[in-house]
Each structure stands twice: as structure tokens, then as C-alpha cells.
Design brief:
The chain has 80 residues and is of the alpha+beta class. The protein has four helices and two strands; from the N terminus they run ααββαα. It is globular, with a radius of gyration of 12 Å.
């Protein structure tokens, strides 16, 4: 999960399973930002992806929109 998505999700209301998944994630430095490796089942990742829908709007900054798209691509790849 890109760091910009993780930061957004930490500031939102999450249920217990989603919060636990984020809390157990391991941050890995990637250039200027970081990636959060979240050890969770695909269903949790899909729930987290739904929660970050506001990052897909025009109100979000371009980096946040790109981070959400990258996360969506990764989550969709889990299903196949």
C-alpha cells in the first residue's frame, strides 16, 4: 500500500479488522515516500480500497490519486 493511501486511511474511521491490519503493516522506504506492507487477506484490502475512494476525486492532489490507482491495481491483481 502506498504511503499516501496509508496516511489517508489512518485519518479516517476504520473498523477493528481494518485498523489492526494497518497497525501490523511494515513501512518500507521508497525514495521520497514509503510503502506499507500490510499482511491481510484480500477482503480487507478491498475494504480499505473502498474507504479511500475520496482520493479518486478531483479534490485530491495528483499524488494521492496516483497512489490510490496503484493500490487499486495491486488489489485487483490479488483477485486473479
Amino acid at each position: 500500500m502506498p504511503g499516501k493511501v496509508a496516511d489517508f486511511l489512518r485519518a479516517t474511521e476504520l473498523d477493528d479488522a481494518e485498523r489492526a491490519a494497518l497497525d501490523h503493516g511494515q513501512a518500507v522506504r521508497r525514495g521520497q515516500d514509503y510503502t506499507l506492507r500490510v499482511p491481510a487477506v484480500p477482503a480487507i484490502h478491498r475494504q480499505l480500497l473502498e474507504r479511500c475512494q475520496p482520493l479518486d476525486s478531483a479534490a485530491a492532489i495528483p499524488a494521492q490519486r496516483k497512489a490510490r490507482r496503484e493500490y487499486a491495481n495491486r488489489v485487483n491483481a490479488l483477485a486473479h
